[in-house]
Specification:
Blueprint lengths: L3 E6 L9 H9 L2 E8 L4 E3 L2 E2 L3 H20 L5 E4 L2 H12 L3 E5 L4 H11 L5 E4 L21 H11 L51 H13 L6 H4 L13 H6 L4 H15 L3 H23 L20 H9 L5 H13 L4 H14 L4 H11 L5 H12 L13 H8 L4 H7 L1
Parallel strand pairs: 1-2, 1-6, 2-5, 6-7
Antiparallel strand pairs: 3-4
The chain binds flavin-adenine dinucleotide.
The site of flavin-adenine dinucleotide has 29 residues, from helix 8, helix 10, helix 13 and helix 15.
């Protein structure tokens, strides 16, 4: 009997250092690479789950994936709608004997996995989105330390060496010999250009996709930017103040493991300093927000988060809409919210400031803020988004409670000449 596999891409839109895809390609006689676009329903009032910036960046990433697969004599089938129903239909047509995909442990994606497993076709899933592998962790995930600093110290004391990447598949198995329509609309809008965008994804260099992600990493290293990262990372605008890895990481066009591996090679060659270490430190936050999902699961999505207190929220939709539109009357907040809406990106500093403002100054529901970020951010990542919102709201694992930012102080420190505000308000 032939091994006929459906490889369902999720947030791992790459061929290099994709262990799950490599395995699928080595073990299958016939391989169908698939991507299922979820229904883009509204997640709150008229907010679409995937806003125009995310749609465009995803389109670019899928185009590159398709090209890459084609260059290996394969292709990408794109379908829309309920992933389980789509897989069921396709499996019947091609007689699939196995389904393989990357594991995502956030609640909705877990539900998808359960429904796919119920189809009765063997399913294999792989955890591959963290920098550090689960089996390398010096603790059992169910008992991982709640506090980030303890988590980091345990990891650092083990002196984990980030593994070398898995290679590209040399050859891909053939596609099913059925009549399958592989063509898809590869166009994307080009009229969203903003000259001040800190991540100008409509410029060729910043398009979504694996080729660009790898080129960006090499360019970042070539400019020796890891040596100054810590000094610049809190700035509010510009292309080079932070790494800008996150949009490509969020779709898995590049793996966190490979980034860490290359940074280590850079340090071996050019020397390590506090700044180059700090990239690892931030990537470790990314891992931490992933791993706490193993421990706390759905609780991280409830109104009270991990707190035992009943968090009374008097959500005000009028305030929320002003925040979304950048019309709160607070210039720093309005500049930030306009940048987000116009470009799909916001610096980490501004994300913290606008999130704090929504929660503490406008008394709105933090979960609505998280939904707006989900819709808008081109680097939307379920774990990092939920984890950071909980952190600011003081409902996560941080023992110091929430983070309320004073906008006047932040303005003086990070935008003393009001350059950033003028960019977005004029
Ligand atoms: C309210 C709020 C929501 C956020 N939502 C997201 C999100 O949906 N997706 C996302 O990738 N990041 C999110 N972040 C984290 C952070 O703001 C972005 O990762 C960062 O700004 C991306 O730009 P960069 O790649 O240039 O970051 P850099 O400063 O260059 O950091 C390097 C990498 O480290 C990781 N990283 C850095 N800071 C954090 C952090 N606080 N938490 C987790 N990982 C981090 C990212 O993978 C990033 O690419 C959020 C932060 C806040 C305060």
């Amino acid at each position: 009997m032939k091994n006929i596999t459906i490889y369902c891409f999720r947030n791992d839109l790459r061929l290099f250092d994709n262990t799950a895809f490599l395995k699928a390609s080595l073990e299958s006689d016939v391989l169908l690479p698939l991507f299922c676009h979820p229904d883009n329903q509204s997640i709150y009032k008229n907010i679409q789950r995937v806003g125009i910036h995310r749609q465009t960046f995803l389109r670019q990433a899928l185009n590159q994936l398709k090209e890459n697969l084609k260059s290996h004599n394969s292709d990408l089938l794109e379908v829309h709608g309920n992933i389980c129903e789509q897989i069921k239909k396709i499996s019947e047509v091609i007689g699939a004997t196995k389904i393989i995909f990357e594991k995502i442990i956030s609640p909705e994606e877990q539900d998808e996995e359960i429904s796919i497993r119920s189809l009765g076709i063997p399913v294999e899933t792989f955890w591959q989105s963290s920098m550090i592998e689960v089996n390398e962790l010096p603790f059992d995930l169910k008992n991982m330390p709640d506090i980030f600093t303890e988590f980091r110290k345990l990891i650092e004391s083990k002196k984990i060496i980030v593994k070398a990447p898995t290679p590209l598949p040399e050859k891909l198995p053939p596609l099913p010999d059925k009549n399958i329509e592989f063509s898809s609309n590869t166009n994307f809008p080009t009229s969203l250009k903003y000259k001040h965008a800190s991540f100008p994804y409509l410029e060729n260099q910043f398009h979504g996709g694996e080729k660009n992600a790898l080129a960006h990493l090499e360019n970042y290293l070539l400019q020796k930017l890891p040596h100054t990262y810590k000094e610049t990372r809190n700035q509010l605008f510009g292309v080079n103040f932070s790494t800008k890895f996150s949009p490509w990481l969020s779709l898995g066009s590049i793996s966190a493991r490979y980034i860490a591996f290359r940074i280590k090679e850079f340090e071996d060659q050019h020397g390590a300093n506090e700044s180059s270490y700090w990239i690892w430190f931030e990537l470790l936050w990314r891992d931490y927000f992933r791993f706490i999902h193993f421990k706390f699961g759905k609780k991280l999505y409830s109104k009270n988060g991990l707190s035992n207190n009943n968090n009374l929220i008097n959500h005000n939709d009028e305030n929320f809409n002003k925040w979304i539109q950048g019309e709160t009357g607070n210039d720093l907040i309005d500049a930030g919210m306009k940048e987000l809406r116009f470009t799909g990106y916001l610096s980490n500093r501004m994300r913290q400031i606008v999130a704090s403002y929504l929660i503490y100054d406008l008394s709105c529901d933090w979960r609505k803020g998280a939904l707006w970020f989900e819709s808008q951010l081109i680097d939307y990542d379920v774990y990092s988004n939920q984890g950071n919102w909980l952190y600011i709201a003081g409902l996560g694992t941080d023992p110091r409670g929430g983070r309320k930012f004073n906008t006047k102080k932040q303005n003086l420190e990070y935008d003393p000449n009001n350059t950033y505000k003028k960019m977005w308000l004029n």
